[in-house]
Design a protein that fits this description.
The structure holds 3 protein chains of 3 kinds. Helix content of chain A is 69%, strand content 3%. Chain A is built from 26 helices and 8 strands. In chain A, a hairpin with a 5-residue loop joins β4 and β5. Chain A is mostly helical. By secondary structure, chain B is mainly α. Chain B has one domain: Helix Hairpins, CATH 1.10.287.3510. Chain B has helices at 5-25, 29-54, 60-90. In chain B, 50% of the residues are buried. Chain C is an all-alpha fold. Chain C has a domain at 1-83: NADH-ubiquinone/plastoquinone oxidoreductase chain 6, subunit NuoJ (Four Helix Bundle (Hemerythrin (Met), subunit A), Up-down Bundle). In chain C, 75% of the residues lie in helices and 0% in strands. Chain C is built from 7 helices and no strands. Chain C starts with a helix and ends with a helix. The chains are: A mainly alpha, B mainly alpha, C mainly alpha. At the B-C interface, α1, α2 and α3 of B face α1, α2, α3, α4 and α5 of C.
């Protein structure tokens, strides 16, 4: 079977998780870290082998008639309930799965390496829980890899939950801190709520189509996404409707809600900023580069179905566009650099979602209406580049935090002189996300904007505006951290560039961020496996670069040197500023809804009912039994003579009754 | 004057009443067993006289008396052994003082 | 018409049974109580002889009077100081016992007297009951055979032997 060694990519992290988790405590902390990094290195090499073989290898059967085929490596039955209801667990390689293998393994490997330095104190001694940390990282890597190679919806769901669990474990890694505990619970509960909808969607979809397998839902006989197959899958619902919408539209919307929970789309985004309580490398890996794009991946996986159910697609489009703007607006005023980056992440993921949603252009089958699936390609491309530069930005932030022991940017300022390598790496990341050519972000974001303009001028303009805001807030952060004013040394040793284990990943990722834009994504990851002809749209590219430059210049004006302009602007629009700083009070709204409305209005009466009526009924039974036994307890005196007396009286009474009856 | 069945039942009845009275009133466990013997004996008499008067050709009542005597003997022997054991343990044969196994 | 001897004997037996029964349960000295029981048992044995059940009377004397009463006496001597009186009964208990006894006698007496005709049967003469007949019935499986109860009693006695050993054994 071709590419059968892909199993190793999944198996090694699982083994590392079990090994480090079970045997880790018996080993020295340093050894577990090194073993974890080595295991991940091997995984990465194999994953690269798999992906490169898939994309560029010949004679493996993955390209036929110029179409990149989905290769099902394994697909054994896992749970077979009936002949038709069979859940399988397997490995499926198609362009986006192969690309995700590269993304996950690269970032994961970088984070493993980086954590050697980050999770140690300044003398290089690993901190407590080091083994646990590496075990969880391996668990996460395993789950994420299992997710991207899933052959069916059910497998995706299983691994969706597993990444959720590992995310929960890693956010709550510093379990002694209440903030981390709350953040992990919040992340878990919010994503679980979303996953409930996901499960509903899966059940509805599989009930009507009779299958979980992507091979029967979206992949055609030529092994690529096929509209005809998707069409027939939708048709198997037989036009059933619910509340005026077709059931498959409902199912796909529910599935999108599941993805939106993981991908932190508005209004389910509230967990992601709090998730920054976890260690920074974890934020880089899970909450910036990999897990949060699972939702995008999910929608991309079912792309042909969404194309047919345009209603669901429109919801994605609106939610994505709004989230992109909303998160960018918040990111402009945050003072905690990790939170600012978190909102930036939300905004960028929303870019990907929107891009997917606009790619079918006119609201009908993309081929018929001249759509090219450009948005699909752009979305996946942006997913790839974003993973690289956002991981870079987070790791830089981690290095800074490690150096100054604070997340707040007013404790930083002027770090450029102290940490030049970090500064340059961060600058590259900022340029990449801002979309300045030739850095990675430019290429992918440009494609997204082209696709958005293709859907409509409004959408294009909207996304261009958000792109400009992105440039502004990223450079605001950059200038505030590295310039603004001279750094005041707060701790007893001055901040400096971190040890090589932390610096090396920065350099590698910075290099990747520079060149990643030249990856021929239009050739490799297209929705139907065909080569996609693209060319730079000079108007779009030029205008987006111009907007980005304006954003950067504005940030430069405001934040490069210490001045009172930002303060005056803040005072001028203090209402707006405060609202944005408090994330437009979404958390408070949730708090209000859950505590005041749901808890007070629904749960308290139910609890009262349970405690007083239901419990009361059983308590009454118990009390009645108790008092009855208490009352008749005296009969059980243990005195044989009383028993005989009572027995005798009873027997005589019976005899008397008998005789009276005989007489009558 | 004839000796009828009734005439034999009367002393048996009184014997049984005395057994009941003794069983209920006495505190001494040995005395209680003596009362028990009285009741058993009264029942034995009834068996015998009923057999003799009503079914003279058969021996059912007589055999039951025979078995009752055997069982009573065994039972008395065991019960007295138990009483003596209890006495060894508690220096007491008062049934109202033996409360250890009550609950 | 019975012989006068039989009638006199009957009254002796009846009075002895009633009087000694009452004494058995009313005396305050336990050893006397056992002695009165012995007299009651003897009277019963004589009653059996009068019923022409010689074997049964012999068994009554041998097992009850010879065995059980001796056991009682041993037990009493092991557990009591000779000559000690039992403490007097409480009025409540006495009334309780008395009521039960009187109630029992009343109900049963009523039952007996209400069947006076039935109970007025005369004693029929029967052939002498010899040991061969008793043994035959005891070990026969015929219609009036008693092998099964005989075996059951055997097993019961075996169980009693084992129980006695267990109880008497030193721990």
């Amino acid at each position: 079977m071709p590419l059968s060694y892909t199993i190793a990519v999944i198996a090694i992290p699982l083994f590392m998780f079990l090994f480090l988790g079970l045997a880790g405590v018996k080993m020295s902390r340093k050894l577990t870290g090194v073993l974890g990094v080595l295991g991940m290195a091997v995984t990465t090499v194999i994953a690269y082998g798999v992906a490169l073989t898939y994309f560029f290898g010949t004679g493996q059967g993955q390209i036929a008639d110029g179409v990149r085929q989905a290769v099902t490596v394994f697909n054994p039955d896992w749970l077979s309930f009936t002949d038709t209801l069979v859940v399988r667990m397997g490995i499926l390689l198609d362009p986006i799965a192969a690309m995700m293998l590269i993304v996950v393994c690269t970032v994961s490997f970088m984070v493993h390496l980086y954590s050697l330095g980050y999770m140690s104190d300044h003398d290089g001694n690993p901190e407590e829980g080091f083994q646990r940390y590496y075990a969880f990282l391996a668990l996460f890597t395993f789950s994420m890899l299992g997710l991207v190679v899933a052959t069916n919806l059910f497998q995706i769901f299983v691994f969706f939950e597993m990444v959720g669990v590992s995310s929960y474990l890693l956010i709550g890694f510093y379990y002694s801190s209440p903030a981390a505990n709350h953040a992990s619970k919040k992340a878990f509960i919010v994503t679980r709520l979303a996953d409930l909808f996901f499960l509903l969607g899966i059940m509805i979809l599989s009930y009507y189509t009779g299958t979980f397998d992507f091979n029967q839902l979206v992949f055609g006989s030529n092994g690529a996404n096929d509209m005809a197959v998707a069409q027939s899958a939708i048709a198997s619902a037989g036009g059933a409707t619910f509340l005026g919408c077709s059931v498959t539209a409902w199912a796909l919307t529910f599935i999108f809600i599941g993805g939106a929970g993981k991908s932190a789309m508005y209004p389910l985004h509230i967990w992601l900023p709090d998730a920054m309580e976890g260690p920074t490398p974890v934020s880089a890996l899970i909450h910036a580069a990999t897990m949060v794009v699972a939702g995008v991946f999910l929608v991309a996986r079912l792309f042909p179905l969404y194309v047919i159910e345009q209603g669901a697609m429109e919801i994605i489009c609106v939610v994505g566009a709004f989230t992109a703007f909303y998160a960018a607006a918040i990111a402009c005023v945050q003072s905690d650099i990790k939170r600012a980056l978190a909102f930036s992440t939300i905004s960028q993921i929303a870019f990907m979602m929107t891009s997917l949603a606009v790619s079918s252009a006119d609201g009908a089958l993309i081929e018929i209406h001249g759509g090219t699936g450009l948005g699909y390609m752009a979305s996946m491309f942006h997913l790839f580049t974003h993973a690289m530069f956002k991981a870079l930005l987070f790791l830089c932030a981690g290095a800074i935090i490690h150096a100054v022991h604070s997340n707040e940017n007013d404790k930083m300022h002027g770090l450029h002189k102290f940490m030049p390598i970090t500064s340059i790496a961060f600058l590259i990341g900022c340029l990449a996300i801002a979309g300045i050519p030739p850095f990675a972000g430019f290429w992918s974001k440009d494609e997204i904007l082209v696709a958005a303009y293709h859907k409509g001028f409004f959408w294009g303009l909207w996304m261009s505006m958000v792109a400009g805001m992105t440039a502004f807030y990223m450079f605001r952060i950059y200038f505030l951290i590295f310039f603004w004013k001279k750094h005041e040394v707060h701790t007893h040793h001055a901040p400096k560039d971190q040890p090589w284990t932390m610096t090396l990943p920065l350099i590698i990722l910075a290099a990747v961020s520079v060149v990643a834009g030249f990856v021929p994504a239009h050739d490799l990851v297209t929705w139907n496996g065909h080569h996609l002809h693209t060319q730079l749209d000079w108007t779009v590219a030029g205008s987006s670069v111009a907007i980005a430059l304006v954003g950067i210049l504005l940030a430069y004006k405001l934040y490069f040197k210490e001045n009172d302009l930002p303060e005056r602007m803040k005072n001028a629009a203090s209402g707006l500023w405060t609202a944005a700083y408090h994330r437009f009070y979404m958390d408070e709204l949730y708090q209000f809804i859950t505590h005041k409305v749901i808890f007070q209005g629904i749960c308290v009466p139910i609890a009262w009912f349970d405690r007083h009526i239901i419990d009361g009924f059983f308590n009454m039974l118990a009390n009645a039994t108790g008092s009855a036994s208490f009352a008749i307890r005296r009969l059980q005196s243990g005195s044989v003579q009383s028993y005989v007396y009572i027995y005798l009286v009873g027997a005589l009474a019976l005899a008397a009754v008998t005789m009276v009856c005989v007489l009558i | 004057m004839n000796l009828t069945l009734l005439m034999y039942l009367i002393p048996s009845l009184f014997m049984f009443g005395c057994g009941v009275y003794g069983f209920i009133t006495r505190k001494n466990m040995i005395a209680i067993m003596i009362s028990l013997e009285l009741m058993l004996n009264s029942v034995d008499i009834n068996f015998v006289v009923f057999n003799r008067y009503l079914f003279p050709g058969q021996l059912d009542g007589m055999f039951f008396t025979l078995f009752a005597i055997a069982i009573a003997a065994a039972e008395t022997a065991l019960a007295l052994a138990i009483v003596i054991n209890i006495f060894r343990a508690t220096k007491n044969v008062d049934i109202q003082q033996i409360l250890k196994l009550k609950f | 018409m019975e012989s006068v001897g039989n009638i006199i004997l009957y009254f002796v037996i009846a009075i002895a049974i009633i009087v000694f029964s009452v004494l058995t349960v009313t005396t305050r000295q336990i050893l006397r109580s056992a002695t009165y029981l012995l007299f009651v048992l003897f009277a019963t044995a004589i009653l059996y002889f009068q019923m022409d059940y010689q074997f049964l009377g012999a068994v009554q004397i041998a097992v009850y009077a010879g065995g059980i009463v001796v056991l009682f006496v041993f037990a009493i001597l092991l557990t009591h100081k000779p000559g000690a009186d039992a403490e007097p009964l409480s009025t409540h208990r006495r009334w309780l016992g008395l009521s039960a006894a009187v109630l029992g006698i009343a109900v049963c007496g009523y039952a007996v007297f209400s069947h006076a005709a039935f109970c007025g049967r005369q004693l029929a003469t029967v052939a002498d009951l010899d040991m061969a007949t008793i043994g035959h019935f005891l070990l026969s499986t015929d219609k009036w055979g008693y092998l099964l109860p005989f075996e059951a009693v055997s097993i019961l006695l075996l169980a009693c032997i084992i129980g006695g050993v267990v109880i008497a054994r030193k721990r």
